[in-house]
Structure formats: structure tokens, C-alpha cells
Batch of 4 targets.
Target 1
Amino acid sequence: MPEHKGISCELHVEGQKATEYQVTQAGPICTSHIISQEDKLFSFRLNITSATLGGSVARLDLELWADGQKLDAFTFTETDYLVDDAQIRDSTGTVKVVKLRFAKLKTVDEKKPDQETRQNILRKLGTLEIKLWRAHQDATQTGSFAYQQEPSKNPIHEKSIKGESITHCTEFANAKAIQNPSSSGYLTRKIDPYETPWVTFVFRHASKSLLEAAGIVPKEILAKTSTNVKLESRSPGKRTRNIKEESPNLPEIKLSPRGKKRGSADEIPEPRYPGYEHSKKKRSRYNAEKHWPGDS
């Protein structure tokens, strides 16, 4: 996605940058559409200009949202940043690290007592969001961190999304339980009010055919080209005919430089706090709901 306020965010599917369509900017929100593919893993790669992280702005707080529900929250100081998983607590209390992938959205055609009725979720199905706040350098460790509860998967009635361009949702993959998860997180001092992030990147996704039908993906971009191929004939002489070859005009794929993994050694300034290693990689996570006195 184009740089916005000194920050760019790309969505990568299986390691390749997804092509973005109808990119728009409205205030702090940058929105685009991408083609989602069932069972494909995806991740986000952020690049922050050095001018953005300077002066009183020494770190960024980030929240990852999918289908209207928050998955995880992080704080970091790097200019290249990779978000490729989340840590959640399931219904049994187990904390797991999970990868993210696209899944076909399943609907029901009859009423269910537990069907999804929350409009803030129904309106955000098929939507991914990266929310970013500017924050001060200092971060205080807290021992009362609460992992995000695993998002609910209530049945979606087909009438609830009738007429909407929705075919896929986000699901978890490659889940691994974290043994003895730490309760440590970090409190940060945001410069921007929590209700109004500095920048929000919104990716709306659906199948190629649906986005074509909606006029979001121009059909001519994906049109097949024709090639003249000479064919030998058993009869005297030669004749030619047009044979359509499948050679889609694919967009150029550009890989971002590999960013630092979340939780890298220089993510939180020295001194490091003991007891924070609760998985194979350390991560700086913050309590989004808590603010220091005097924050906006």
C-alpha cells in the first residue's frame, strides 16, 4: 500500500506481495482491495521512514484486527517490521501462537440461536486492519497482561451478508501451544488517542471472480492473450489459426527486504526484564486498554 504518514504496509500471500486494487486514502485511513485465496497463509510487512520515528516519537503501537475482532497487539521501535502470527488464549485457557490464513466463509440458511448478530463484526467480515499509534520511547513492564481471547466463530446467516462482496474470512493455522506463557507485557505512553490511531491500513479481500463482478478488479487485466500458432496440415500447404494460450498478464511481484522478527533483541531497550521469554521468540506486547495518567 502507498506510504501514508511515513508508513507503508504490504500484505503478502505465501511470501509474495498481493496486488492492491482501488487504493484510497481518507484522513488517517488507507484502504485497498486484494484477491484472497483459500488456505493461503498471509502476513504484513511494514516500513517506517526514519523521519517518522524521531524526536518524541520513538516507538509505534500496533493492533492486528481481522473480521471485526482484535487478534493481538505489539509495540516496536524498528523501521522494518513483520507481522506473521498472533498469540491468543483459547476456550480451555491454553495460550497458542498461530499463523494466519484465508478460509472460505461458511454461511447457514436457517436461524441458529448462536448466530452472529453483532453489526460491528458483520460489517467487517472479509476485512483485515493494521492500526498504528505513535508512542514515546519509555515502556513499563506489567505483570498483569491478558492474552487476547480466541475470536468467536458464530454461524453467519446468509441474509446477514446478502449483497456484500464477501467470500473469505481469516482463520488460524499451524497452532502451537506455549508452555508456561508469561503474564508480562508492556504499558506504553501513546501520543495519539486510542480512539483515533495515527494510521490505519484496511485490506478488504474476496475471491477474484467476485471482485471482477463488482468492478473492483478490471477484467481486462486478467484477460487471456491470443497467439498465432502455425499448424501443419496433412493436405498440401500450411494454414494458420488463432489458438488461445493461457498467459495471464500477471503483475510484477516485488518482495520487501526481510524485516526484523517481532521480539528481536533490540526491540525493547536495555535493560531487558527477566522472565519475559515465554516462547521461542521474544515479543513486545502491550495492554491497549490501559493508559498512563495524562495520556490523550
Target 2
Amino acid sequence: MPDHRITPELLGAVTCARAAPAARRCSLTARLTARLRAHRYDRMLAVGVSADPGSALAAHRTRLTSTTERQAVASALLRAVREARDPDVHSWRIPVHIVNVIAAADLIDQVRRRLQSPRPVGVLGMARLRLVLSDGAGPLYRFGRGDLTGRLGAALAEL
């Protein structure tokens, strides 16, 4: 009886198939790896590491510029501003740094509008924004350190 199993090595060797010139779909393994290592790949992309076609990093890069991801980041930024203006003491979320967020509210609004615009966004900027949002010890969150305005400005410049 023939063996019809697909080994992980074979599955990982499958590269992005061209569905259309502008759109590529990476292998399931690459996409799954990209999800599991998202924070690591965000850090890599934020400093300009290039992605080989078909790699998990390429799959992550593609996801970062998707409309869904752009909307998710824009919503998270809007939520941070709303929470800074009207803190919810009963929330299970990490509380935002009210002073930093209020000081950067105009810049956050610029970033949010840029994410919601139809123009394409840069991967470097998206990776930097995701790092700001995911760093619980960063300047966006209470007791965090760093320059929120500087980080958001750098991300906006790369969008």
C-alpha cells in the first residue's frame, strides 16, 4: 500500500505559490510558524531583516501589511487613547500610561488615520507599531519606560 503521508520536511520545502502576481500564499507550515513566532519576527522586521520568499518570515511580512492587521493595530491604538481618557479600573488589561498616551494622542490619531487609509503601508512601520503595542514594559503602558512619541513617530515615518 502506498504511503501518502506528507512529512514535515516536505511540507516545509513548499514555497509560496503564485496565485496572482501581486498575491502570494505561503505554505501552511510557514504561516503557522509565522503566527507562533510573531513577536520574534516583528523584532526582526523592525530592524530591516529581509525575508526569503516562502519563508515563515515572508508569511509574517505579508500578514503585517494585510487590511485585517492594519485594522487590528488601529483599533488597539484607539482603545489605548479611550482608556487613557476614561480609565476602567475593573479592566483585566494592562493599564495604559495615561500621561504618555494623552501627550501622544494627536500622533496616535495620525498613525490610526494612516493605517485606515487605502495607501499601502510599510512592513518596518507595522512591525514597530506591533512592538509598541506588545511591550507591556514599554512607554504605552503604566510603569513602562521609554519615549512613546518617539517610537510612534519612527513607526509613522516607516509607514
Target 3
Amino acid sequence: MKGASYMPNLLFRTAVLAAVAAAVFLSTALPSSPPLARAASIKDGAFVPPVQIYAPALDQVVRTLPNTRDIRRSAETWLAAAGGLSPRLRIQEESRLVLRISMHPPLPVSKAGLIFHCRELFLLVPLPETKENPQLLAFSTGDGTYIFECTWETLRPFWKQYGLEDLSYH
């Protein structure tokens, strides 16, 4: 029964990726740094962390952006346009950049037969030479983790708007 063994394997791989993503950002977040503090915002009395752009090859956050309504709308567009759940799980050196976007309030998502509220979204951007599409790693308020396929066509307007084409990643 291929279907019965596939789901536990997917859940295990998802848990591993979630742990790696959390370790990467917990080890690189610099809450006391002035750029990070300036990029953070307060929404409805709650602290909203800035958008962090992490380069795995450099092992550092290479840019922070204010977590604006426009950025969260872009993330909502990515999720709406995303295909089904992704079977691929990659981070570390195989990712060019990883964007971390906190969603406040959590974003309601109904996708691929799932219904959840996304509290945090990671955009996993592959290296150009891999010719692979980006992925969306969504963390729900119920501690679920979901990975969706994204396309460059969906991402390109955001990429250009924030000048990420030439951002150093190695």
C-alpha cells in the first residue's frame, strides 16, 4: 500500500524541514540589531516581526523588510496561486534564499483539501541552476506544517518590487 506509507514519510520529512527552518532562523535572528528593530512593526498592539531574508550559503540574514500589509497580501497571492502539496523538501545549501513572513492576523487558507490559519510563511527560493520552482512552507496556528509548490511567474512581481534579483546569496 503505497498511500499508507507515503503520508507518515511526508509528515516526517515535513517535521525535519520545520526543525531545520526553525533552527536556521532562531540562530540568525538578531532582535536587538537596529535594522531588525526598525523593520518590525506593531499591529493591533501586537509585535509583528519583520520579513527576514536568509541566505543559507552565507548562513546569515541578508536583508530585512518591514512586515507591511502589501507584503502579506503578496504572500496571500502566492498561497492562492500555489499548486498542491509539494513532495520536495530542501533547504540548506540547495536554497538560494529563504524569506520568513509572519502573518498577523493569521491568514485563513483553504488549499489542497486543507483548511488552516497560516501564522508564518517561509518562501524557499531555489538556486537558479536547479531550474526548480520556489516552495511555500506554511505553519498553521494549530502547529501544522504544509509545503506547497509556487511558480516564478507568481513570485516575479514581488521579487522585482523589492529588488531581490541582485541580492547576494553566496
Target 4
Amino acid sequence: MPINSASGASCQINLLQPSPSAGSPSIRTPCEEYDHQTTLDPTTGAIQEMVTIQSQQASPFGILIDIKPTAYSSLKQQQQQQQQHPTNPPQSSTHDHQSVIIPEDYACKIILDGIEVGSYQHPKSESYSKKHITRIVAADGLTIQALQFAKLNLVDPDDYDDDNHQSLVSTDPIDRICEDETVIKALGTIQIDVFRCTLVAQPRCITTATTTIVPPVKPPTVTSNQMKFSERSKKARLSTSAGLAQQETPRDPPSEMRWHYQSIDPFPFLQFIFKYKPRSILESEGILFAQPAPTVEFKPDPQNQIRSEQSSSINNHHYCNSRNDELEAHDHKRVQVEDDHGRVEDKKPKIIDLTGLDDL
């Protein structure tokens, strides 16, 4: 997980799988992280911790955030020391460290593909600094939406109007191509912005002498999971979006109290940015090695194997008979050769009478 060394803050994306046991929490699988970089936002001055992860086409996920109450003071103290002593920052004493480092309240805004979907309030009074976020709760507390990776919905732009990008066969407002440049540029990004703030606890429903004021009911947030994108866009290579699932009703009633912002800084002091990409892009960028082609194990048909063995046996039999005939013929010729030259025959020499020639 990307960790900010100065503040000790960290963040992690976990894939969620259903537990085999009923009633047990989901199984968390941390996403593999690559290419960790630490940069500085030139506009806001926020520290940015960026990593790349492999995207998943259809999977709920969670965001594990660990923000120490002293994160802001620790980070600012280190920055001041680096500015005063850029080459050799001095080591602060324990007394100085305690006098400068103070706890703060924080707000973590969650931004999926350029769309802010919710925020998490972390008061300094909480002793446990870790929070695993899997769902976004509506302001009224009556509905929830789970964080979810989904397949990017790509469409042919020829099927949509050129002027308003609305579908030619549907009047549903959601059935249109997204032309929001903020969303298109941010596709493939999960971002958590950490702000310093001051929190106060207030009742969720405020009751007065005459009426009860409840938080306004807002329509569900439309994220990139519900949007359509042109298949000709450069972002079409991503194949995955990160957004919210459909609304559900929570099993537990909403809490009576909720945190409100008394004040909040205009800019975040820390950002965690996750760039999610499919494996094909990670391989083309040299971040991951290409996977070897799977080996296919050939299992012959037993009947074909039996017929093959029988055919092989017959061929071997014919070959052996032919070879024996050849050897016998060859041996027979060899014996004949020995009979002609190797053995002395039991015959008398033929005598030719040449005496008559003298009389001629």
C-alpha cells in the first residue's frame, strides 16, 4: 500500500469476495501495486502518493484508509525542516516534537473516475485510525451504494445524436454518451483527498418545537458505472470503470448522530491516487511481463491408443518376418560363395593328350 512516510498515513484497495460462511465478512484481497511515486501538486501543495493497480472487470472493492490524528502536523513539520535545512535536516528533541505535533480532525473525500461519491469523517477523538470503506451511505441514512468495479460501457457513436449525444432509439436521459471532460480524463483513477477540518457531532434529525428537520433526500449519485462512453475514445482501452452499484436498503437503522463540518481547509494536504489499468496495458507499458501461453495437455483416446498399439504390433510382426527372410537369403548366398571358393572338391584333374600334335 502507498504510505506517506512523514505522516504515517496509508491507503489500500481491496477486492471483496463473498465469504463461504453465511454471516461472515467478505474476504479481502489487496490489489497488487506497481510503480509507486511521490509527487507534489504544484497548485495546492498537496503530497500525492500514486500507485498503479490491475483493474478488475466486475468486483466489489473496499478502500482501507489509515490516518493518524497527528498526520497533518507531522507532515508539515517535516516540510518545514526540509525548507530550513534542505541538505541535512536536524533531529528534533522529544520535547520539541511533542510541542509541535498536535492531533487534528480529518475528512477523506472519495473520488471515483473524477466523480466525488462521498466522504469519510475521522475525528481526532477516535483511537482507532483505520477505516475500511465498502459502501457510501446517503445523507438521510436510508440507502447505501457499494463501491464496485464494472465493465466499461462502450457504445457506437453512430447510434447517438451528434448534437446532444442522446440515443436515437431511447429517450432515457441516462442513455447518452458521456461528454464530461472531467470524467473522461479521470477514467481509470481512484482518488482519496485528505483534508484538515474541525468536526462537530449533531443529531441526524433536528427536532424543534414545531417540526423535525431531516437531511434532504438526494437522487443516487450517477457514476461511470452507469454512464456510456464512445468506443472511439482513447479511454476505450481501459475496459473497466470504478463507481457505485445500485441503491440498497441497509439492514441496520441509521445512527442518530452524524459528524458535520464546522470548518474545513479549501485544499487537501494529502492525496492517494490509484491508477487502475487492464493487464494488457500494464504489459505494453513494461510494468508486467507477458504471461506465457498455456500448455495444452493432449490426452489420447483409449480406443485409438489400443488400435494404434494393435497396428504397431502387426507392422512389427510383418517387419520381423520380412527381416528373417532377408537374413536367410543372405546367409544362403554366403554359404554358396563358400562352396565355390572355400572348399577343395574331391575330383581328379583332367588330362589332355597332346601327343598327337607331334605327328602333324
